[in-house]
Write a structure and sequence with these properties.
By secondary structure, this protein is mainly α. It has a single domain, classed as MetI-like (MetI-like fold, Orthogonal Bundle), CATH 1.10.3720. The chain has 12 helices and no strands. Helix 2 packs across helix 12 and helix 8 packs antiparallel against helix 9. It is elongated, with a radius of gyration of 22 Å. The protein starts with a helix and ends in a 6-residue tail after the last helix.
């Protein structure tokens, strides 16, 4: 009976959050773009008119046309096809780096927030030192030491961002660790791991959803920055930041080459940010309307 009541309550809360989210038109616009982006990356092989590395030296520097909707680059490669395939790499880097950093950060934050005391002080002072280094500078330093490449870019981003997740999760867990349901779990001799995983984390996770959503956008931007300076994805990879690097020498004569990947990065980051804002408003019970 208790499980049924809990299930009904969770379903009701989910419906309420969904209703409030769908009232935010800007957030829904961001969600639609993200869904479209996911669709494109999944079906890139069918949607792209050409291969991302396919060269045609008789069609170099061609502007947008019926044959090449977004034009071609200095090697005669179709820019639209490269953008479509590049969505896979950009999303892969952003999502995997955020998943890894969130896992590390949530683990550290949950331990610090649940136990408090010396463990909390030790972990937080370490994070204070960690966060004194700007994320971009730290990412560049780690990527330089590991070497360029997609995998190393994911690791560099994950290591750089995880302190923010740890701090947020620590604060969230500290607000619930003295609640009645935690005391009830302790009273039946539930071990700490079970209390954290089954009771503390689920009830402290709402702020993390918002943070994860918004961090995907910023990670995509940072990944493009690393690729732009030569530390991320390497040619002939069609990652959007790498496409900006390849096109920067032709910005005056062929601006369309750099405009397309720049717009894709901008719209992707904006979509994740507005969706994150919408989720924050929908999950905050003080903003009910």
């Amino acid at each position: 009976m208790e499980n049924q009541i809990s299930s009904i309550k969770k379903t009701s809360q989910f419906k309420e959050v969904t209703r409030r989210l769908f009232k935010n038109k800007l957030a829904i616009a961001g969600l639609v773009f993200i869904v479209l982006l996911i669709f494109i990356m999944i079906f890139a092989d069918f949607l792209a008119p050409y291969g991302y590395a396919e060269q045609d030296f008789t069609a170099t520097y061609q502007g947008p046309s019926a044959e090449h909707l977004l034009g071609t680059d200095h090697l005669g490669r179709d820019i639209l096809s490269r953008l479509i395939y590049g969505s896979r790499i950009s999303m892969e880097i952003a999502v995997l780096s955020v998943a890894l950093s969130a896992t590390i950060g949530i683990t550290i934050g949950a331990i610090a927030g649940f136990y408090g005391g010396k463990i909390d002080n030790l972990l937080m002072r370490f994070l204070d030192i960690y966060q004194s280094i700007p994320v971009l500078i730290l990412s560049i330093a780690i990527a330089t030491s590991l070497g360029p490449g997609v995998t190393n870019t994911i690791l560099a981003l994950a290591i750089s961002v995880c302190p923010s997740y740890a701090r947020l999760m620590r604060a969230s867990v500290m607000t619930v660790r003295d609640k009645e349901y935690i005391e009830a779990a302790r009273s039946i001799n539930a071990n700490d791991a079970r209390i954290i995983l089954r009771h503390a984390l689920p009830n402290a996770f709402s702020p993390m959803i918002v943070n994860i959503t918004m961090t995907i956008g910023s990670s995509m931007l940072t990944a493009a920055t690393l690729s732009f300076v030569g530390l991320g994805a390497q040619p002939p990879s069609p990652e959007w930041g790498a496409m900006l690097t390849a096109a920067k020498s032709y910005i005056r004569d062929y601006p369309y080459m750099i405009t397309s990947p720049g717009v894709c990065i901008m719209l992707s980051v904006l979509s994740f940010n507005v969706l994150g804002d919408g989720l924050r408003d929908a999950l905050d019970p003080r903003l009910k309307n």
